[in-house]
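Aim 2 progress update. The chain analyzed this quarter is reproduced below.
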Amino acid sequence: MQPNITMYQGDTTEVTVEITEIVDGEERPWTPTNETVMLSVGNPGNPIFQRPVVDGVARIEHEDTQTMTPNEYVFDVRVYDPNYNLVATPLVGRFVLQGVVNHELLQP
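Predicted structure tokens:
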């Protein structure tokens, strides 16, 4: 099953990223040692924004989606070695950005 991320334009959210590996025939959580894990959102071949995955969480900030057009995009999670060479793309899915009525931040 393909994973999905759905959020509203301009919101801030944290996305849990779970990567697994097979060890001795069993699926287990994978934890990076010296690798960098990145979440990218956009259209194929044209990322709109990228966020690091730290301790299994990618934080998408208000500014990342504020000016994006509400639409369906794709996302991927990629693992890079210490020299930033691509090692793997363990997750690919749909990113659905829903529109909002008010684009202004409320001021206290």
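The chain has one helix and nine strands. The CA atoms of residues 41 and 47 lie 6 Å apart. These observations will guide the mutagenesis experiments scheduled for the next reporting period.
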